[in-house]
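Explain this fold:

***
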Amino acid sequence: MAQTRLSMIICCVAICLLNAHKVHSEKLPIVLWHGMGDTCCFPFSLGGVRKFLESEIGVYVKSVEIGNSIAEDFKSGYLVHPNQQIEMVCAELSNDAKLNNGFNAIGFSQGGQFLRGLVQRCPTVRINNLITLGGQHQGVFGLPNCPSLSSRTCERFRQLLNYAAYTELMQNFLVQATYWHDPLNEEKYKNSSSFLADINNERFINQSYVENLQKLNKFIMVQFNKDTIVQPLESQWFGYYKPGQDKETQGLKETELFIEDRLGLKKMDNENKLVFLQCEGNHLQFTKEWLRENLFIYLT
């Protein structure tokens, strides 16, 4: 009788361990968030990336779409405030049963800081690893070669942002104004930025942002070393211009944000949760081979 009972206990323990291993080793779904001048589903951009990941990794891949059509989604990259986008995406992902057990997330360009905003503001979703490709975590101070728009339109945007980025009209009208970071006028940026200054805890420390970001397993930031769109390119690694000028840059660990640990990044770095990767080439110019070699380890 004792032997039978012992055998049953051993059997139950073995089954529990097997199930635990199965849950632990199960691949998580992936969520993608596109950048400026793109959409969820263009076959030559994120639509192609989604199919590639589904085929290679064999998981459910959801590409975020803002609005009810490709046209609306495209316009959202310029005209729908990030705060509104994050609120919409939070509700959508929270109600997706396929994502209930958590997922990995990849943000492309400005989609990177939007996904980070989602992590910090939306505790009802469970993001395991966050990957940002060319994200502008400290913002931008320049808008060269903006994708999908003519050089004339790019120049008009740049002029508008230089002279009126922090007006209420521009902060509400143009997405790029919400992460325009003028190093020549840090106080105006901190007081007027309606998105980036908030999620970077520039004005005051929102402890929930810190706690929610800490829940990530890994925060992977990819910098494109020949980037001609993100200025300065160090923003992709949370670096930026030294305050008061726009020539010299500094890395994340030299910034007040890190030194004062206003976002908990120092703690995450100490816990080896921050990963900094480089990709040679221009903005978002990567190959399938580069993806396999550098990112699959965080997706499988």
